[in-house]
Structures are given as structure tokens and as C-alpha cells.
């Protein structure tokens, strides 16, 4: 618990200062106080949790699942094929230089206000850290150990599952821990730019009504989703990497 003490103190101090400043300036439509946000969150809990949270969570779940499969598959393909590595790696880097905020409206034109326009945005944001994490992990496998297993007569598939995958797991989980919070951001961006439901959509709708507390209320839920998913990844990582020292 001691490791989180300073973070808790910093967060508490920030919230207190925020509350004081918000009460002094009296512009709740721009800067609502934390207490106003909590009150608004309680007032809107039914509509947010029952109508908009499921829509956002579906986008996050589908987008992150596709990114996992796609990212791991691309990483393995690049690891075993130098041609694919030289062809795909520059494209992966280039894909991250394009502002997602500019592409999101195009996806709305292509897919309409369906869930898939938001899913594509989420995939574009999350697949990169997963791919690079897995690829760098596979590439970091010690050559001496690989050659030793080859001399023992192990096949490529046996070496892959017994040596390369375990070696890649730390880097893979590092990439996944980056991708998980970004999946929440991707879903929110997609919903902000074109949606009929979701926490991001509701936040944008509140903005058009100059309801500052209403804008922040869905953001609080989005933050909790990101934190919860991050904790889940940490738990899974610890179960897979029991051999690694903390």
C-alpha cells in the first residue's frame, strides 16, 4: 500500500485545489467542481450505466480483441519472414503518424453510425503497441538458447512455444498495458465524432448543452473502465510471469 500513498496524496491535493478554484470562479459550465461532477454522476447513473456504458464497453471489447489477434499475428509473421518485416514495419510506424482524429470522420462515412466506425478507430490506436511489443519480445529471444534447443532436436514449433513465446511475454504484456487504456481513448474519440450512443457521445451531447458537470461525468466512468482493464491485465501478467521478480 505504501507505493500508492504518494499518488493518493497527490490526487487528493489536486481534487481539493480543483474544488476550491471551481467554487471561486463560478463557471461550472467550463470548470465544474469535483463535487458537482459526483452529484451529476449520481443523477445520471441510470442512463449512463444502462444505456451508454454497454455501447462503449462493446466497442472497447471488440476493438481490443481484434487488435490482440491482429497484432500477435503480424508480429509472428514479421518474426519469421524478413520480407514481411521490411514491408510491414515501416507501414506500422507510418500508421501512427496519421492523426486518428482526422480519420475518424472518414470511418463514419464508410461505416455510418454503426459500432464498426468506432471499432476501427479503437483498432488503429491499440494494435500498434501490441504488435511492436510482441515483435520485440520475439526478437529478443537469446540465440544461444535457440541453437541449444535445435541441437537437442526440437522442431521450430516446439522452440516457438517453449522458448520464444515465454521470452516474448514480458514485452507483450508491456505493449498490452499501453494498449488497454488507449482502447478507452479510441472508443471515446470514435463516439465523439459520430455515434448515437456511448459515453463519449453522451459527453459531447452535454457539451452542446453547456453542462460542464455532464461532460465530466461520463469521463469519470471512462477513467474507471481504463483503470479496471489495466488491473485485469496486471493480474493476468502476474499469473503468466510468476517466474519474474517484482
How would you describe the overall organization of this protein?
Helix content is 83%, strand content 0%. It has helices spanning 5-25, 34-43, 45-80, 82-95, 100-111, 115-139, 143-151, 156-193, 199-208, 212-240. By secondary structure, it is mainly α. Helix 2 packs across helix 10, helix 3 packs across helix 9 (199-208) and helix 8 runs parallel beside helix 9. The protein has one domain (33-240): Orthogonal Bundle (MetI-like fold).
Which regions are unreliable across 5 or more consecutive residues at pLDDT < 50?
A: none
Strand-residue fraction? under 5%
* Gap between N and C termini: 15 Å
User: How many distinct domains?
Assistant: 1
What would you call the shape?
elongated
Secondary structure tally, helices: 10
Main sheet specs = none
CATH superfamily: MetI-like
Stated plainly, the CATH topology is called MetI-like fold
Radius of gyration: 22 Å
CATH class: Mainly Alpha
CATH architecture term: Orthogonal Bundle
- How does the helix and strand content classify structurally? mainly alpha
SSE order, as H and E?
HHHHHHHHHH
Amino acid at each position: 500500500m505504501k507505493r500508492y500513498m504518494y499518488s493518493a496524496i497527490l490526487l487528493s491535493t489536486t481534487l481539493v485545489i480543483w474544488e476550491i478554484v471551481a467554487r471561486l470562479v463560478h463557471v461550472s459550465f467550463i470548470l465544474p467542481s469535483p463535487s458537482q461532477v459526483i452529484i451529476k454522476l449520481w443523477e445520471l447513473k441510470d442512463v449512463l450505466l444502462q444505456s451508454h456504458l454497454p455501447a462503449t464497453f462493446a466497442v472497447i471489447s471488440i476493438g481490443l480483441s481484434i487488435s490482440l489477434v491482429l497484432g500477435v499475428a503480424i508480429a509472428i509473421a514479421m518474426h519469421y519472414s524478413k520480407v514481411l518485416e521490411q514491408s510491414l514495419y515501416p507501414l506500422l510506424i507510418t500508421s501512427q503518424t496519421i492523426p486518428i482524429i482526422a480519420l475518424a470522420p472518414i470511418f463514419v462515412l464508410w461505416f455510418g453510425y454503426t459500432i464498426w466506425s468506432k471499432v476501427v478507430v479503437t483498432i488503429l490506436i491499440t494494435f500498434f503497441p501490441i504488435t511492436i511489443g510482441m515483435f520485440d519480445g520475439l526478437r529478443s529471444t537469446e540465440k544461444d538458447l535457440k541453437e541449444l534447443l535445435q541441437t537437442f532436436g526440437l522442431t521450430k514449433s516446439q522452440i516457438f512455444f517453449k522458448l520464444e513465446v515465454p521470452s516474448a511475454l514480458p514485452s507483450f504484456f508491456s505493449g498490452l498495458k499501453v494498449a488497454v487504456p488507449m482502447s478507452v481513448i479510441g472508443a471515446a474519440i470514435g463516439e465523439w465524432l459520430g455515434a448515437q450512443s456511448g459515453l463519449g457521445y453522451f459527453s459531447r451531447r452535454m457539451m452542446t448543452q453547456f453542462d460542464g458537470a455532464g461532460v465530466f461525468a461520463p469521463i469519470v466512468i471512462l477513467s474507471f473502465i481504463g483503470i479496471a482493464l489495466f488491473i485485469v491485465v496486471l493480474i493476468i501478467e502476474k499469473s503468466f510471469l510468476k517466474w519474474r521478480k517484482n
